Amino acid sequence: MNSISVNKFRDNLKTFVEQVFSEHEPLKVTRRNGEDFIVLSADDWNREQETLYVLQNTDLMKQIATSINTYEKKKGYKPTSGEINEILDL
After folding, report:
1. Calpha distance 41→58 (Å, rounded)
2. Which residue ranges make up each domain of the chain?
3. SS3 49
4. Strand ranges (DSSP E) for 1-90?
5. Model confidence pLDDT, tens digit, residues 10-47
6. Closest by CA position to 22, among listed 43, 37, 5
7. CB–CB of 36/28 below 8 Å?
8. Backbone phi, then psi, for 3, in 5-degree steps?
9. What CATH superfamily is the domain 1-40?
10. Is 70 left (phi over 0), alpha (psi -120 to 50) or beta?
11. Nearest-angstrom CA–CA distance, 63 and 76
12. Contact 44/67 with Cβ under 8 angstroms?
């Protein structure tokens, strides 16, 4: 994560905001008093929150682990061609 001073951030606000959006990387802004803050796009914030939800949900993580296990053993559910066409809206 890049880090800049609050003065540099203020002087180049538009440039840094565009950088946060285009690179999808948070930007740490440091202040003299030590109270730093992070600049992050709303879409990236939502994605991070969804990831945290999944990682903190033990039941969901168990389902994912089970799914990976059955996939690797090729014992997972295999949809019919009709089901695949319906999913793909063909």
Report:
1. 28
2. 1-40, 41-76
3. helix
4. 2-5, 27-30, 37-39
5. 999 999 999 999 999 999 999 999 899 999 999 999 99
6. 43
7. yes
8. -135, 135
9. YefM-like domain (3.40.1620.10)
10. alpha
11. 12
12. no
How far is the C-alpha of 17 from the C-alpha of 22, rounded, in Å?
Answer: 9
Please tell me the distance from the alpha carbon of residue 17 to that of residue 6, in angstroms, as a whole number.
13
Task: For residue 28, give both structure tokens.
Answer: 């740490």
Closest C-alpha among 33, 28, 23, 34 to residue 8: 28
Interatomic CA distance for residues 86 and 90, integer angstroms:
6
5, β-bridge pairs: 30
Phi-psi region of 60 (alpha: psi -120 to 50; beta: other; left: phi over 0): alpha
For 40-87, the pLDDT digits (tens) are 999 999 999 999 999 999 999 999 999 999 999 988 888 899 999 998
Q: Residue 29 is which amino acid? A: V
Give the strand pairing for 37-39 and 27-30. Answer: antiparallel
